[in-house]
Write a structure and sequence with these properties.
Organism: Rhodohalobacter sulfatireducens
Radius of gyration: 22 Å
Number of strands: 10
Function: Associates with the EF-Tu.GDP complex and induces the exchange of GDP to GTP. It remains bound to the aminoacyl-tRNA.EF-Tu.GTP complex up to the GTP hydrolysis stage on the ribosome.
Strand order of the largest sheet: 1-2-5
Order of helices and strands: HHHEEHHHEEHEEEHHHEEHE
GO molecular function, one term: translation elongation factor activity
Largest sheet: 3 strands, antiparallel
InterPro entries: EF-Ts_dimer_sf, Transl_elong_EFTs/EF1B, Transl_elong_EFTs/EF1B_dimer, Transl_elong_Ts_CS, UBA-like_sf
Low-confidence stretches: 48-56
Distance between the termini: 34 Å
CATH topology of one domain: Tetrahydropterin Synthase, Chain A
Strand content: 15-25%
CATH architecture of one domain: 2-Layer Sandwich
Oligomer: single chain
Protein name: Elongation factor Ts
């Protein structure tokens, strides 16, 4: 099939691979973008996780945590421009929507939009904001979480990235809790532990690792064993408790928590603007 220069450029921007490599991968994949990315990885290409076709909406991520750290709500409210996202009225409206979700323990966009503020439903408030501001305004995500452990939040400056961390029990050291939340924000793990990683992802990583080793000329038996080593490195990069602690690469996140007599992480939610 014919591969357009536009498609080649799109793959190059998404992966950082060379133009000819991108064209060959797309040709081999019959134009399938995701399959072409996989082909590049199997050939040992260092590809970026950034997708060129992803449009990052503007807006805000906001989080509320109860005083006893047992409840949390988070919301993503989107607009078209950063200028609107910095507007005081837009921010106040987004906060009022979050307050309703928090107080009424709502984790559904549809349910939240049916709630009223000052006699108007939130859906109607959104319509009025669109009419006043002249941009598309929407609620991209809403979460409500309850925990028997301890919930901690982190909002990155600019409100485009937020994290809620659930610890297994009460965590007394606020600095340690914030460090772990910032780790999640910065390193974007797939899961807390290996068991939390989807088996399809593990199988795909093993397949890619084997293909890379075979393409390097390694015998099949050696490639099979060595791919397990690559999988271990994958876990160290993508599983939270096994990741190197960003403030001290000599220890893992789990070791950092243990050294500070802090409870382990049970779960987390990472909200990045435009990734709903």
């Amino acid at each position: 099939m014919s591969i357009s220069a536009k498609d080649v450029m799109k793959l190059r921007e998404a992966t950082g691979a060379g133009m000819m490599d991108c064209k060959k991968a797309l040709t081999e994949a019959d134009g399938d973008f995701d399959r072409a990315v996989e082909i590049l990885r199997k050939k040992g290409q260092q590809v970026s996780e950034k997708r060129a076709d992803r449009e990052a909406n503007q807006g805000l991520i906001l989080i509320n945590i109860s005083d006893d750290h047992s409840k949390a709500a988070a919301i993503e409210v989107n607009c078209e421009t950063d200028f609107v996202a910095r507007n005081d009225d837009f921010q106040a409206s987004a906060q009022s929507f979050l307050d309703v979700a928090f107080e009424k323990e709502i984790g559904s966009i549809d349910e939240l939009k049916q709630q009223e503020i000052d006699g108007l439903t939130i859906a109607k408030h959104l319509d009025e904001m669109v009419g006043k501001i002249g941009e598309k305004i929407k609620i991209g995500r809403v979460l409500f979480i309850e925990s028997s452990g301890d919930l901690v939040k982190y909002i990155h400056p600019g409100n485009q990235l937020g994290v809620i961390v659930e610890f297994e029990s009460s965590i007394d050291d606020a600095d340690v809790a914030k460090d772990v939340a910032m780790q999640i924000a910065a390193m974007n793990p797939l899961a807390v532990t290996r068991d939390g990683v989807d088996t399809s992802i593990v199988e795909k990583e093993l397949e890619i690792a084997k293909e890379q080793l075979l393409n390097e000329g390694k015998p099949a038996e050696i490639a099979e064993k060595a791919s397990q080593g690559k999988l271990r490195r994958f876990y160290e990069e993508r599983v939270l408790l096994e990741q190197k602690f960003v403030k001290d690469n000599g220890i893992s996140v789990k070791e950092y928590l243990e050294q500070n007599d802090a409870p382990l992480v049970r779960s987390y939610h990472r909200l990045q603007l435009g990734e709903a």
